[in-house]
Amino acid sequence: MSKPRLQAPRGTRDFYPEDLRRRDWLFAHFREVARRFGFEEVDAPLVEHAELFIRKAGEEIVDQLYHFTLHERHLALRPEFTPSLARLVMARAGSLRLPLRWFGIPQCWRYERTTRGRRREHYQWNMDVWGEPSVTAEAELIAAVFSLLDRLGLAPGDVRMRVSSRAWLEELLHDRYLAEHPEAFAPLCVVIDKLDKIGPEAVVEQLSDRDGPVGLDPGAAKEAVELLGLRDLEEAARLAPEGSTAVADLRRLFELLDAYGVAERVEFDASVVRGLAYYTGTVFEAFDAGGQLRAICGGGRYDRLLESLGGSPMPAVGFGFGDAVVGELLAEKDLLPEPARGLDDVVFAFGEAERPAAVRLATRLRGEGRSVELVLGSVRLKRALADADRAGAARLLMLGPDELARGVAKARDLATGEERDEPLPG
Fold first, then answer.
1. Going from the N-terminus, what domains does the chain have, and what CATH number goes with each?
2. pTM of the prediction?
3. CA distances from 166 to 59, 226, 249, 347 (A)
């Protein structure tokens, strides 16, 4: 019989107590920013019907699903949270008060090549606004991202947000290349989203593959990729059709971001398209300024997702902010804390005769809301002191024969060394 594998599956993580404390620290910041922005927390099953992701997520996610068939049901671990959110909204669409401001911290699974900051399982902070068609929603979400980054201790120049618009790109490409094949736009976005991964030549090759879903001629494919090099919003506006609503939205977005005080941390970048097929308008991604990591977060507008799933139309926009990439950046900047256990007291009985009284003391202190570790075994006082100090406890309460006879425990303040008597429960 072979020995059990002691390592977690590749691309996944174990969380020992110190790791979980850091994760809880990060999640607490997620929740606090969401609270300050007036968002409510939701969650959904980790396992969903696979069709929910296959129908409209796009080829990239479909190929990365952890999926299986059980009792004739095709199920999948969620690779992202937005389709689950859409299902929740559709289930109560007639009774929900719009706009919805929802957030979640789901665990997601994708089978993909692991690199620095890229794992096959990760948690992500999702914030979504449903029922608001204007870019006021995008501005609020982008401001929330920067609020989180500031809370984590990152400097304003450490992270840049890149913004573009699929609607703008669709306007340009429709008139130039896709007038007769508008259905090719979504797969085109999936291909050009790989620009940083595979390079412009490979993207042109995939766009011009006659047997592929896009099928541009090589010249048109090359021109489309060149459009992605635009970094100036006014140049993008010059190329857009007259009266472009996409350009008007982008200009309004930057005006609002200036009001939030974050416009200088945001830039127009036509290469941002996002790889998911359901995005329809503004799209954005945040990257470390050094360009050493993959996207810290990404999102955009997906106004037609409910319709694609058989529901009534509803505008929506949201983002996903992964825990793994920002963890890498915080470690690089020496900003990851070592959160203490938050232990208040350690109760130590010198012998078995004192143990019942020690149990009653620990029980009373716990009832008062204190975090109390009761030393369970027979250890020496020196070991108990060292363990209590290492755990970050505030006090060690010692109970021996003399203390038991006097009806007290000796409480030592581990920071000052001062001692006083703590009455035992009656």
1. 17-332 (3.30.930.10), 345-423 (3.40.50.800)
2. 0.90
3. 18, 16, 12, 62
